[in-house]
Write a structure and sequence with these properties.
The chain is about 0% helix and about 50% strand. It is an all-beta fold. The protein has 5 domains: about 160 residues, no CATH class; about 100 residues, no CATH class; about 110 residues, no CATH class; about 100 residues, Immunoglobulin-like; about 70 residues, Sandwich (Immunoglobulin-like), CATH 2.60.40. The strands form 7 sheets. Strands 2-6-9-12-15-18-21-24-27-30-32-34-36-38 form a 14-stranded parallel beta sheet, with no helix packed on it. Strands 7-10-13-16-19-22-25-28-31-33-35-37-40-39 form a 14-stranded mixed beta sheet, with no helix packed on it.
Length: about 575
């Protein structure tokens, strides 16, 4: 379709042969200040090519005509028996103009997939009061445009929104999306009324999907025989703290789910993505179907330590639902030392039988400690200010059966010493040595430690803990080295899809890495020395790729990865 040339074409109804219809006939509305019927001939003007002028139309436009424009100030309604079995195509709705579909009988109005954009909305389009728009055509909502589905309207044509999309209204029902592909690139607001997604509808959200229930809890229903799904790559935010929303369609989340109120995912939601409670700040409840292994962002915004008022709080069905989650804490408040914050709580007062507290990765300022207390996960402020040490590089390299740890920091006179910590599961660390801080040096300071107690039959994890003179501590990132029956794994590749990067763990010298696509085309080459390295892949198209590892120009290993 030609996105630079917005046209509105109405196609598909048969008329008596009294008129010779040209495919190039252009129509425009001419009914300022009043709502007029599409099927009322007086609504329209037709462009007369011979006269090079607009003349009164002899009929109303259809899909057999050229560009059809709803002009600024005009409001046109398609309804009633006269519009039965009407087909349309290439329609342009100007700014401050409106097109309304209501009470469309006999299977609704058909949108053809002709040349150009089939409907371009610069003003407003309403599918209202049992209106129905169907067909293979596509709807484009421009930046200035608004699409509204309400009062049990039905849409089966595909739509791309770059403006505003409204589902329901205050105290007004929403409608149905059936067998269509909806792409929201800007803002979609679901206010009131139930929403139906049927016949394998796919709703892709790249922008903001805001849920603002005014009157009742909301339900997004589905047809189990023809399941629909929501693919969230942007943000789904609930701003109605008094109401819940239940998604009975599957949600694939790689974006953000957040806000306040309650989310229920009855049809399930995939792992991944970010959970972000709060409305600067606020309290969010997740019901059935909580996504696993999520990133959870918590903000402590203002002093006072009242959950949902001064800091974000998340409520989950059970603490075991949090297994594998990463919790990121940001603090802008100036509460006193020993202030406690319940950042996560569970509806279940006890853990499931046979299960302990879940393992979490907590990224918090160094002047906060975290722990589980019964059915709560709490933070406690332990010092007025966080540690101010700046970590530089940190790498772990094997030399035979030993592991050499090298790190550097920016000198801080408050640092007392470092502890070397070792783990074989990445969760439980044991202190294995103490390294004194180097006094008298300024700027970047380098340290090295040789560890001879590595487990030669599994993955070994290492981190460095910095200890201040006042007892406060802070840890480096963790590094790992994998051994298999006494032999180090020379090449490890992990993907971080959220940050679009590859994490390479190299344990061999003078390595050349060649990145190829699946057709064998070389996209990039780079040389690496032993240690941990980050390769950014944000510029790569979605697809499969190979990393070929060469040592002394000999191919020694190949690993494959996917870019999502």
């Amino acid at each position: 379709m030609n996105k630079a040339f917005f046209r509105l074409l109405l196609t598909g109804i048969s008329f008596a042969s009294a008129f010779q219809v040209s495919a190039q006939d252009a129509f425009k509305s001419n009914s300022p200040g009043k709502a007029s019927q599409w099927t009322d001939v007086a609504t329209w003007q037709r462009y007369d090519a011979a006269k090079k002028a607009w003349v009164a139309a002899e009929r109303f436009p259809t899909a057999n005509d050229g560009v059809i424009t709803i002009q600024q100030g005009d409001s046109v309604i398609i309804t009633g028996d006269a519009a039965a079995r009407l087909s349309i195509d290439q329609v342009v709705i100007d700014q401050r103009a409106a097109l309304v579909f209501k009470k469309n009988e006999y299977g609704g109005i058909k949108l053809n997939d002709g040349d150009g954009d089939d409907i371009t909305i610069k003003g407003r389009l309403y599918i209202d009061n049992d209106g129905m728009l169907r067909g293979e055509g596509k709807i484009q909502v421009a930046e200035t445009g608004t699409f509204s589905l309400r009062n049990n309207g039905i849409l089966t044509a595909s739509l791309s929104n770059n403006g505003l999309m409204l589902l329901g209204d205050k105290y007004v029902a929403a409608g149905s999306l059936a067998g269509c592909h909806i792409v929201n690139n800007k803002t979609c607001v679901w206010m009131d009324g139930q929403l139906m997604m049927d016949s394998a509808t796919v709703f892709t959200n790249n922008g903001l999907f805001q849920i603002n229930a005014v009157n009742n809890d909301l339900v997004c229903n589905a047809n189990k025989k023809h399941p629909a799904k929501i693919v969230n790559k942007g943000s789904i935010m609930n701003v109605a703290k008094e109401h819940s929303v239940d998604f009975r369609v599957k949600v694939e989340n790689s974006g953000i789910i957040g806000g306040v109120g309650t989310f229920v995912f009855s049809a399930g939601v995939n792992s991944g993505g970010v959970i972000s409670p709060g409305a600067s700040p606020g309290h969010l409840t997740l019901g059935k179907g909580i996504p696993a292994s999520s990133v959870i962002n918590i903000e402590i915004a203002t002093a006072g330590a009242v959950a949902g008022v001064n800091y974000d709080q998340l409520t989950v069905p059970s603490l075991t639902d949090l297994a594998g989650a990463t919790v990121n804490i940001s603090n802008a408040a100036e509460d006193s030392i020993n202030t406690e914050y319940t950042i996560i709580n569970a509806k279940a007062l006890t853990l499931e039988r046979g299960k302990g507290y879940p393992d979490l990765i907590v990224n918090a300022p160094s002047n906060f400690s975290s722990s589980f207390k019964e059915n709560r996960f709490v933070l406690v402020k332990t010092a007025k200010e966080p540690l101010e040490i700046t970590w530089g590089g940190f790498r772990a390299v094997s030399e035979g059966k030993e592991v050499i740890l090298d790190w550097n920091t920016v000198s801080d006179p408050r640092t007392s010493h470092f502890f070397i910590e070792h783990s074989t599961d990445g969760v439980n660390y044991v202190q294995v040595s103490k390294v004194e801080v180097k006094r008298g040096e300024t700027g970047e300071v380098n340290y090295s430690f040789s560890f001879g107690g590595a487990d030669l039959f599994r993955v070994n994890y290492f981190r460095v803990k910095q200890v201040n003179a006042d007892g406060r501590t802070g840890c480096s990132v963790a590094r790992s080295i994998r051994f298999d029956k006494g032999v180090v794994t020379a090449f490890q590749v992990d993907t971080n899809q959220e940050n679009e990067e590859l994490l390479l763990n190299i344990q061999s010298k003078n390595v050349k890495v060649v990145l190829n696509n699946m057709d064998g085309k070389t996209l990039h080459e780079f040389s690496l020395q032993p240690g941990q390295h980050t390769v950014y892949i944000d510029i790569l198209p979605v697809g499969a790729y190979r990393l070929n590892f060469f040592v002394k120009d000999s191919l020694v290993e190949t690993k494959q990865f996917m870019k999502h």
